[in-house]
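Hi everyone,

Forwarding the result from last night's run.
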Amino acid sequence: MPLITDIKIQVKNTEKVSLFVDGKYSFSLTISQLAEHKILKTNQEISAKQVAEFKKLSNLTNLYIRIVGLVYSRPRSEFEIRTKLKLKKLSPEEVEELVSKLKLKGYLDDQYFAKWWVDGRKSSRPISKLKLKSELAQKGVNSNLVNQVLEEGFSKEDELSSLKKLIAKKESKYPDQQKLIAHLASKGFSYQLIKECLKGDSDHNF
C-alpha cells in the first residue's frame, strides 16, 4: 500500500503543504485541510482511492485559489467564472461546488459586478444605457438585475451628459448632421435623445 513519506510546508505559500507518497510529490492541501484530515501523517499508509480523492481536492483547491486571484484583479460576473470553470473540464457538481463557495465568501456577486461595470464605463467613456445593457447581457447578468442597477446608477442626466461628450468628440469628424445622428444612434442613443441634445446645443449656440 502507498506510504506518505513526507509532508512539507510550501515555500511560496506557507498556508499550504505538499504531501509526498512513496518518495514522490503527490498532492497539496491547505493547513486547515490537513488539520481536518488528522490521520494524514508521515509513515502512514494511504490507499490508492484516498490518494485519488486527495488529488481531486487538491486540484479543486488550487483552482479556487486561482479564481479568487482572478476576481481580485477585477470583479467578474458569475457567467464569466462558470465559463472559465467549464473550460477546466470539471463535472457539473464540481462547478456548482466552486461557484457556491465563491458566492458564499462574497467573491461572486452579480449585483456588485453590474454596479462596478456601470460606474467604470460611464466614468471612462461616453456610453448609452442601451450599450450598457448589451455589455452586461454579454457578461450573463440577469436582465432584471441589469434594469435595477441602471435605474439606480445611470440616470437620464448621465446618459445626456454622456451623449454631449460624444457629440463634442465626434462633431468635427461628422460635419453632416445626419451622418452624426446615424453615428450616435449606432452607439445606442435614441433618436429622441439625440435630437433633444442637438436642439439644445443649437439653441445655445444661437
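The CA atoms of residues 170 and 206 lie 20 Å apart.

Cheers,
N.
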